[in-house]
Amino acid sequence: MSVVTSPPPVSAALLTDHYELTMVQAARQAGTAGRRSVFELFPRRLPAGRRYGVVAGVGRALDAIEAFRFDGAALAALEGVVDADMLEWLASYRFSGDVWGYAEGEAYFPHSPLLVVEGTFAEAVLLETVLLSVYNHDSAIASAASRMTLAAGGRPCIEMGSRRTHEQAAVAAARAAYVAGFDSTSNLAARAAYGVPSAGTAAHSFTLLHDTEVDAFRAQVQTLGVGTTLLVDTYDVTEAVRLAVEVAGTDLGAVRLDSGDLGLVARDVRAQLDSLGATSTRIVVTSDLDEHAIAALAAAPVDAYGVGTQLVTGSGHPTCGFVYKLVAREGADGELVSVAKRSTDKASVGGRKYALRRRSPAGTAQAEVVGIGERPEDDGDDRSLLVPLVAAGEVVGRASLDEARARHRASVAELPRAVTMMSAGEPVIPTVFEQ
Amino acid sequence: MSVVTSPPPVSAALLTDHYELTMVQAARQAGTAGRRSVFELFPRRLPAGRRYGVVAGVGRALDAIEAFRFDGAALAALEGVVDADMLEWLASYRFSGDVWGYAEGEAYFPHSPLLVVEGTFAEAVLLETVLLSVYNHDSAIASAASRMTLAAGGRPCIEMGSRRTHEQAAVAAARAAYVAGFDSTSNLAARAAYGVPSAGTAAHSFTLLHDTEVDAFRAQVQTLGVGTTLLVDTYDVTEAVRLAVEVAGTDLGAVRLDSGDLGLVARDVRAQLDSLGATSTRIVVTSDLDEHAIAALAAAPVDAYGVGTQLVTGSGHPTCGFVYKLVAREGADGELVSVAKRSTDKASVGGRKYALRRRSPAGTAQAEVVGIGERPEDDGDDRSLLVPLVAAGEVVGRASLDEARARHRASVAELPRAVTMMSAGEPVIPTVFEQ
Fold this sequence. Notes:
The structure is a homodimer.
Chain A: E1 3-4, E2 10-11, H1 18-30, E3 36-43, E4 53-54, H2 58-67, H3 72-77, H4 84-91, E5 98-102, E6 107-108, E7 115-120, H5 121-125, H6 128-152, E8 157-159, H7 169-179, E9 184-185, H8 188-194, H9 204-209, H10 213-224, E10 229-231, H11 237-248, E11 254-257, H12 262-275, E12 282-285, H13 291-296, E13 304-307, H14 309-312, E14 322-330, E15 336-338, E16 353-359, E17 365-372, E18 383-384, E19 386-391, E20 394-395, H15 401-413, E21 431-434
Parallel strand pairs in A: 8-9, 8-13, 10-11, 11-12, 12-13, 17-21
Antiparallel strand pairs in A: 3-7, 3-14, 4-6, 5-7, 5-19, 14-15, 16-17, 16-18, 19-20
Helix pairs in contact in A: 2-6, 6-7, 7-8, 10-11, 11-12
């Protein structure tokens, strides 16, 4: 997903760290760039206190792989970074390897091998930065969004955070929130690029623009119909609710509350709406909501939650800390050798990984089983987690957002019930390595 | 700044919330859309514990204003959002008003009027979402980056966080960090789009690709020269440093440490390098650094800091919480009227704002003076803060990144010395309203 602003667009292949290119140049000269290699994208842990994570960005990552080409402008921008021979190689670069990964919307746990990328060292290492960027951002948003939709317990959640994050991250955030169960977004680019349903109410500026609140309500109802959502907290809520029903009638779609003690105010407004006969008018609340505030409103007469800042910043965890590590590569004899860094505090587990979710006969998840070097055995009730995404350079694993939403619902539904607890806790299932 | 990936690019004007467009449609039908209006972009407060903030994104915001047009694809995407009459109006939309703002790199405080946007309601409200997105993101990064460069006390800081944030936010983050004193970035798109100097070392995967560590070092030195930075913590640091100097000689540019107790290891490595005669070889440290970790390494023999996650996530504060509020608008009589929301917990101060930094005769900042409705009086040593950015729709306030860097240095240098304290504290100068 991308958006045109000036300065002129830059090739997707430049969404990359300087060292990826210089490493490939060095490996090419050393004769090692063509060694078959397996990279793995995975989390060492969940953010502190989180019980599960949710994978998002898979579709965007596939877009990035397809778009990862060095055009003339990109090559010109790389003069001084790499040498002429390397520029020539980059000009015909195209990922021709294989990728397997968790499906978009899937739950994940510490050490889940979310992506397995196999190709030559050169072609696979070049994708490191952009794959991590997409996964670290989108999954952070989806992981927070999933907790919010669980806390909302079936009441719709509307994504409204565009203004609190980078303008293009906002588009990806709207998409990721939708994967994790949000119903709609305020972001029009997400509507245009991904078909996420968009929705909106009105801002305080609209009320303030008019000479009186009733003028503002009349203007809005006139053009958007009585089904619209009127913002009722610019001046006095009780008076505004009275005016809103006076202007729109008892078929008024909804009112929005954006300040004050939302639970208390919602109760008063519900009673007032009911007493005015507007029994089907819904109450939408906004104002720095997160999963905890949403859960705290469970008993309040609230019909929908608009979530902004805390959604687009991952509710305290704006990035997932995924890493992309070389876990195996061809040796001088042509055989694949497992490799891993030995540093004490950041050691990795070498070897190609496979993964399945172990489930009880009743279908409840029991463990994240990661096989090293070979597939873990399916006990009959288990579910394999790695699906083919790219085969010989061709994208083969594209899923629709509806499929990702369905995957998210099913994946979370089979987790132990502790997944719905908003308090800090351990991952709801353990990760087990099998060799 | 923008980057091409599939799906196809979306017009910059869609980086907007749904309600901005429906509000304009309603105001147009009510005859109020053309009322002259003044919007203000400002922070209600600094993030908890922060002593100052730094404005960034000004240049990107000007880019966004210039690119904010609805092309055919954008209009097609808006069918179902607004009516045909509104689509026709959008087709010729172009901001024709005036904008004043703080210069890029300037320090800011609670209620600093960072942007003042004047135009018709319709043209000014449409910019709300994208202006907030750019300012909230870029200033969060610059505010964190500024503390890091202060903590580094003149030692170079390298931005390396691309992989931990949205791929296009990464480009803006590299730019914002550069404004706030970082020396370079790993991000090649920031180099291409904005001319930020790029730099890189090597990853553990490069060492692991080769049969031995010495093979990897030889390959890197061969292509990048002895001035390169060798990563020495893949296996055993002492052995790696020995090999590094053996391969590159005593003119080796630098070694990088990415794990362990960085202060302790840096001391050992410095002693070892010196004993090997590599007295000018520098030590670069990376590994989840933030401003506190940087400050804690002040006494260690470290020559440069590579900062990733904590930079691109604003070191605990990934967004600034800036808001964009209507503060004045034309009334039925054609006169400009101050307006403000009255909600108890989110009240705003109505009226057009002016700002200056009150300074002592010695040039030390003493207060952020915000004038309501008129310019505060300059005591002779003060500095006016609002500069013209857009006049009658034309960008007039474009500054280079070098100018923004100079502005940042000068602005921070005139703040009280408590600005260098990394502990939590109050804003280093108070904000004073004058009426």
